[in-house]
Amino acid sequence: MEKQQLKNLTLEEMQEWIEDMGEKKFRALQIFRRIYEGVSSFDEMTELPRQLRSRLGECAQIDSLQQIKRQISAKDGTRKYLFRVEGGAAIESVFMKYRYGNTACLSSQAGCRMRCSFCASGAAGLQRNLNAGEIVDQMISMSRDTGERIGHIVVMGTGEPFDNYDELIRAVRILHDRNGPGISLRNITVSTCGLPEKILRFAREMPQVNLAVSLHAADDETRRELMPVASAYSMKELLDVCRQYTELTRRRITFEYALIEGKNDAEQEARKLAAKLKGMLCHVNLIPLNRVEEIGFSGSARRKAEKFAEILQERGIPATIRRELGSDISAACGQLRLQERRDSPI
Ligand code: SAH
């Protein structure tokens, strides 16, 4: 019989599960709390009767990830992890130190179906969806390994979170539980390539969670070249939905824009983008493209990025250039996982 992955249960689900085992409901809260204190064996849960501990050992497991690689940046303390999930696929997670606190970047899928042309994660397609427990466990494993508290989450690792919507929502619920990791919803950011129906659903179901939308172009033609998903939804359709999102949630939306040399970084593109985003409750996050060996594109020069930001700002669109962390450990965008696949194809 397969063991129950305990991090894959919300507290309510754990209560049901423990009652089904013929145990008292309050045991679930004891177990749930201990798991998110970072305990990794049932023996440490000394408040539980010995008999229950051994039963749990037989039918349940606390950890769902196996760490297979770790890189630590000597420059800024960024740590990049490669974890193995059940079935053999590898996923990446990143621990970053920002001034406002420690942040975990989590993957939502092993691989990705979206196949954006500049992204390493989708290069080999989707292997499988992660369950909520595997999403949550990335944060717990990193917190345990670093010995540090993590207060912020970005779902910007491998995968398209809205292509695994239900498990993503369950993961957010677990991460937010005050008996568990207790992360404030306002400190969680989910990044999507732009799936309109899911953006609206998210606005209704998770209005306090931050949303980032990967735009990467100022017109449909360029966007379609970079992101196959743009053939399914026009920019107009996407931006209309984003406007609805801000009206429903009253929250500022972040647009991500990877600056690619000679592709989408001309001054005229910045002006076009500014016109399209005019009046919107938004912020543009400019990311000079991280070079991925397999991919021909390269990132724009710093001066060009600054000019791009300036043009947006002059037109009233808040824009910043993302600070690069972990550049010495290929911490960006699926690179470690890609290396692993090169070394030992899974
Ligand atoms: N599927 C989600 C999360 C992807 S990763 C999404 O599309 O938003 C988070 C961000 O990194 C996205 O904006 C993605 O487009 C961007 N990204 C992917 N590869 C990149 C690269 N090589 N350089 C810079 N940004 C990249």
Structure characteristics:
2 domains; two-stranded parallel sheet; 10-stranded mixed β-sheet; TIM Barrel; 20% strand
Can you walk me through this structure?
The chain has 346 residues and is of the alpha/beta class. It is 36% helix and 20% strand. It contains eleven helices and 14 strands. It has helices at 11-20, 26-37, 50-59, 132-146, 165-176, 196-205, 220-226, 235-249, 267-277, 302-314, 335-343, and strands at 4-5, 60-61, 66-72, 79-84, 90-98, 101-105, 109-111, 126-129, 152-155, 188-192, 210-214, 253-259, 282-288, 319-321. Strands 3-4-5-6-9-10-11-12-13-14 form a ten-stranded mixed beta sheet, sandwiched between helices. Helix 5 (165-176) links the parallel strand 9 (152-155) and strand 10 (188-192). Helix 1 packs across helix 2 (26-37) and helix 6 packs parallel to helix 8. The protein is elongated. The model is unreliable at 341-346 (pLDDT under 50). The chain binds S-adenosyl-L-homocysteine. The site of S-adenosyl-L-homocysteine has 17 residues, from strand 10 and strand 12.
